[in-house]
Amino acid sequence: MSPAIGVPAAVSSGDVAPGPSRPVRVAVAGLEPAGIAHLATLAMIPDCETVAVIDPDSRRARDAAGLGFKAPRFADVETLLAKLVPDALIASGPPDRHLAFAGPALAAGVSVLVDPPLAHTLESAEQLAALAQSHGARLACGHALAYEPVFHAAREALAGGALGALMRARCSIYRSDVFGPRQGWRFEPARSGGGVVANLAADLLFLLDWYLEAPIEVRATWKKLYGEVEDELHAMMRLRSGAEVGFDCSWSVPGYPRAAVVVELEGENGKLLASDDALELDLTSERGGQARGHTVRRRAELPPRARFDWDGEALYLQDASFLAWVTGGPPPPTELRAALRVQRVIDALYRSADQGGAPVEIAS
User: Fold this and answer.
1) Burial of 100 by CB count in 10 Å (0-12 exposed, 13-18 middle, 19+ buried)?
2) What whole-number distance in Å separates Cα of residue 183 and Cα of residue 164?
3) 3-state SS string over 235-255?
4) What is the mean pLDDT of residues 335-345?
5) Distances in Å between the alpha carbon of 205 and those of 85, 172, 210, 214?
6) How far apart are CA 175 and CA 116, in angstroms?
7) CA-CA distance, 262 to 270, in Å (whole number)?
8) Residue 108 neighbours by CB under 8 Å, 6+ apart
9) Measured distance CA(58)–CA(105) in Å, rounded
10) Helix (H) or strand (E) holding 204
């Protein structure tokens, strides 16, 4: 029998922005565009000081300085740690560098946030987990969809048990990005760990874990249209309850200049549809504080919580929630255990697709 959909929310509701409870010193490793976005965000978080940037390429450090980010630059984390030990480090850029960036910091007891996925391979992700656990360091992965207002509101509705026992689920993420051979680390599987799943859909896999539970088996097929990495993937995932979840992703579909996410859940008490634009509920009875019948909560109607908007609130809320945890607050929903479960699902999807859709079990 399917379990009831309802577990405690890990992100507090309300319109109060999270943040560190004391002054905190942060280093940013990896100065590609995502790293620059972190620098801009950190500059807007109260009681946060960026004390160092780390990148082996001095040209990227000069570019960051030209944008006004003047923190001292180090070629690697080991050199930084010989000079100073920050409270936290954010590791950005290609996933194959996450272990080199985060590993020494975790071994020094520094809290680390990495951009998704946790690493380019399950083995490297497990090495990071072992370092964090053995040195008592905090480790989280930046699955930013957890902080998007609509998807956060959907989690709160599910946490209240609005749908009851899950019957069916499907979800998708599409973007118009790849329509021919491309250059760069995202298209080199040895560096990125994969294509559309690792680079785009990992956030959606986190949402499924957060909303429901980790799957125990997957069956997947993929299409490699333009290079070595997959451009599309379709999967069916089986949950411990026996319920199945349909999962689709592609970055080669026309008509999606921005990533578009849709999550559809059907439970014994009705349906939930969450997209980038709105949360819709259609319930047969009032439950968990949610009204009977059809209700819509549009993104524009949800109260803002971030002090800074970088193409939306999610990046600010993600980084600020992580720093709140570093300074004694509650753990973010994307902490190590959840991030490692996502990495295991990514690994299983790739193994299944590589075997032509064979079922692959996922160890808990």
Assistant:
1) middle
2) 46
3) EEEECCCCCEEEEEEECECCC
4) 97
5) 33, 10, 9, 9
6) 17
7) 17
8) 81, 85, 135, 137
9) 21
10) helix 202-211
In the chain, % of residues over pLDDT 90: 87
Give CA–CA dist 4/162, Å, rounded: 9
Specify the DSSP class assigned to residue 128: H
**Cβ atoms of 109 and 137 closer than 8 Å:** yes
Burial of 312 (0-12, 13-18, 19+ CB in 10 A): middle
What's the CA gap between 49 and 73, in Å, rounded?
Answer: 14
> Could you tell me what percent of the chain has a pLDDT over 70?
96
Q: CB of 224 within 8 A of CB of 260?
A: no
The Cβ of residue 87 has, within 10 Å, a number of other Cβ atoms equal to: 20
Alpha helices in the chain (DSSP H): 33-42, 58-66, 77-83, 98-107, 122-135, 149-159, 189-192, 196, 202-211, 314-326, 336-354
Angle at 259 between CA 256 and CA 261, to 5 degrees: 105
Do the Cβ atoms of 55 and 71 come closer than 8 Å? no
> For residue 310, what pLDDT band results from cuts at 50, 70 and 90?
confident
Q: Which two tokens stand for residue 310?
A: 């970088």
Distance in angstroms between the alpha carbons of the first and the last residue of the chain: 20
Alpha-carbon span 300 to 78, nearest angstrom: 45
Q: Which tokens hold the place of 175?
A: 């973007």
Q: At 12, which amino acid appears?
A: S
**3-state SS assignment for residue 120:** coil
The single residue listed with the structure tokens 């439970």 is 267
Q: Which two tokens stand for residue 324?
A: 């709140």
Question: Do the beta carbons of residue 168 and residue 335 sit within 8 Å?
Answer: no
**Residue 321 φ/ψ region, left for φ over 0, alpha for ψ in the -120 to 50 degree band, beta for the rest:** alpha
Both tokens of residue 263?
């999550």
Sort strands 270-275 and 278-283 into parallel, antiparallel or unpaired: antiparallel
Mean pLDDT of the chain: 93
Q: Which two tokens stand for residue 249?
A: 């992703």
